Amino acid sequence: MNDKLKKYILLFVAALGGWGMMAQADNIIDEVIWIVGDEAILRSEVEEERLRAQYEGQSLNGDPYCVIPEQMAIQKLFLHQALLDSVEVSESNVSHQVDMRLNYYISQIGSREKMEEYFRKSQSEIREELMNTVRNQMIIQQMQQQLTAHIKPTPAEIRRYFNSLPQDSIPTIPAQVEVQILSFEPAVPREETERIKSRLRDFTERVQNGSADFSMLARLYSEDTESAKRGGELGFVGKGQLVTEFADVAFNLNDPKKVSRIVETEYGYHIIQLIEKKGERINCRHILMRPHVSAQDKVRALEKLDSIRTVINDSANATFEQAVMYFSQDKQTAMNAGVMMNPNTGSSKFEYQDLPQDVAKQIYNLQVGEISQPFMMMDEMKNKEVCAIVKLKAKNEVHKANLVDDFQVIRAMLEHHLSQQYIEDWIKKKQQEVYVHIDENWRGCDFMYPGWVH
What we know:
The chain is α+β, with helices and mostly antiparallel strands. The protein has helices spanning 3-22, 43-56, 64-84, 91-109, 112-119, 123-148, 155-164, 190-208, 214-221, 225-228, 244-250, 295-314, 320-327, 357-363, 407-433; strands spanning 32-36, 39-42, 172-173, 176-184, 237-238, 263-265, 268-278, 281-289, 350-351, 375-379, 384-396, 399-400, 436-438. The protein is built from 15 helices and 13 strands.
């Protein structure tokens, strides 16, 4: 009897033993329901995944007790291939993604204790499971990209594909615009800055003399609303995940009882308290406060922008691009002639609903080449109000996709089609090559890939 067969028998014996022990109560604690290669899929894993999908609002196309095990089986096919091909991912990237998910869970559920109660596990257990889940997801994604990396259709193939599409399959391209922006923050009076620093110094003194708790002050006064819900706690992060000024101070803290000096970043002014260090990562609390700009300061900033706009419109030598270079404080666009980039696509083209709402309102009635009136808007990255003007650089009206204007869209459609077909064929081939066994009680499913049951 070979080792692999021994392993399968042992797995089934364990599953049958579990069934026998719990049969009288009609309540099976756990059982092996699928085996794919050398890997077992447990009933408990399916239940946990169903619970997680339910919490995250993921819709499953079919019976979860059919869909989830099959998804897990497909994942194991990719992971098996990744092991053969030595595909690896960065542990720091995995850790970063896990910290983001944990922080999201805590912020949505309300507290770490409530999260632990919901999942019926400690935070460390949840984190360990998430590490495995996220690591596998990233490996699978990399494996799929590696499998389909060779798919690069030629221009001739793209044209043939487009010409073969039925008219009702040619996508309608919504109206898209390209936008340039010039923005800066209204000047903050020195007195307002000193007021903020004085309050933070008072908080520091109260924490260090024991008359106040840092986390309570953060809940009451911090303007970082998400971390304020957790008493200012950021969760474990690496140095590269923090802005430089903040990271330099936070990572030099050693005494959890002490509070840092006041730190200025692009987001405002902070004080920081260490919670714990783990190797290259740190967990700390902070209180963020921002100087508030008066209505008069905003009016002055808008008047300055109006003067800049007038000069651009009235002078043959002054351009919007030059004004961006001299006046814009937006790091994302200042070195790109003010051109806004769509974070969802990586291109400079936006559908109206993808633009910041305040920008979309200004752009909607402009003609190409026109500059808006000055307006106030919220910088979502910094969570600060800024004053801005925008220019409509280009506009494409709603139209049926064509090879002249939408070649890259059609290329992406063909690449997606070919990649999807290649992955489906690869899964069907792997089903025949890898040992698969499904418990008879879990076979009565309308599987996406029927080849699981030989």
